[in-house]
Amino acid sequence: MFLPEPREPARTRIVLDYMGMSGTQFKHVMRRLRRAPMFTAITLLTLAVGIGANTAIFSVIESVLLKPLPYPHPEQLVSIMHRAPEMHIEQIPSAPGNYFIYREESRTFQDVGLFNMYTMTVTGQGNPEQVRTLVVTDGVLPILGIRPALGRWFTRADDSTGSPDTVMLMWGSGDASSAETLP
Questions:
Q1: Cα–chain-centroid distance for residue 121?
Q2: In contact, 148 and 179? CB cutoff 8 Å
Q3: Domain range for residue 93?
Q4: Nearest-angstrom CA–CA distance, 10 and 97
Q5: 101 and 176 in one domain?
Q6: Contact 72, 143 (CB under 8 A)
Q7: Residue 122 β-bridge partners
Q8: Residue 76 half-sphere exposure, CB side, CA atoms within 13 Å?
Q9: Does residue 151 contact residue 182 with C-beta atoms inside 8 Å?
Q10: What pLDDT does 132 receive?
């Protein structure tokens, strides 16, 4: 008995033909690029800069906009900045006087806090050591959900003029469980 030879499906033939054609085209492109080294260099540099810029922009967008802050309810946190367009200053942090006005008069915010970052030198029996410090008002730590491991949070009395300085010490990576308050 005579059996017809099985035929290859048309779809398979098209894919194989396309792959053969693209291999030929790739060879032609490579030959052209070798003939024009300056064009090749500019093309590769343009691709590298474009890919690098896209990677950098996506990294910033991902870390700032897409990745939530490591605090409870980060969508409720806002930063209040001021402008002085007459002086050509676009961002001015809130002044202590404004903080007290916001704290006492605000009907919009649950709480208000003010902070500044510094580097200070700790001296004692050993060599002096520079440490990162954060000067905060009483509202900052509860807003961020940071609880002291020992002692207490800052209070409004600590924000009053003439009150003794209160210090909260942290160790390690700044984990909220590592805070200690000292009067």
A1: 28
A2: yes
A3: 74-182
A4: 79
A5: yes
A6: no
A7: 129
A8: 11
A9: yes
A10: 85
